[in-house]
Write a structure and sequence with these properties.
By secondary structure, the chain is mainly alpha-helical. It is built from 4 helices and 2 strands. The radius of gyration is 25 Å and the shape is elongated. The termini are far apart.
């Protein structure tokens, strides 16, 4: 069931309460994010501000669902252990040899 958020007075009080709860939950979640993640959140908020159409909500998101989303995001962005590609690449014997002049010129044109 889709519900559109409108400005009619019968929904204002419940919307006000929901916003208060959402602010508290978001504040707690935002405190745990890195600066890169906070930047992504900021970009999302700015894009939502620029939307002119009403927001459609299929079902409200619970705190538990937010926790699962945050945990999933953290799992996807975990640092991977060293050595996952072991054996998939062999370093050539000439790896540390000086580069040819034509390649060096690409980095430092004269």
């Amino acid at each position: 069931m889709n519900t559109k958020i409108t400005d009619n007075s019968s929904q204002k009080e419940s919307l006000h309460n929901a916003v208060g709860n959402l602010r508290a939950c978001l504040h707690e979640k935002l405190d745990k994010l890195s600066s890169t993640q906070l930047n992504s959140v900021w970009q999302l908020v700015e894009s939502l501000e620029n939307q002119n159409s009403p927001i459609e909500i299929e079902t409200p998101i619970t705190n538990e669902e937010i926790d699962r989303i945050v945990e999933s995001y953290r799992q996807q962005n975990k640092l991977l252990p060293i050595g996952l590609a072991k054996g998939e690449f062999v370093v050539p014997d000439d790896f540390n040899d000086p580069l040819p002049d034509e390649i060096l010129d690409l980095f430092e044109p004269q």
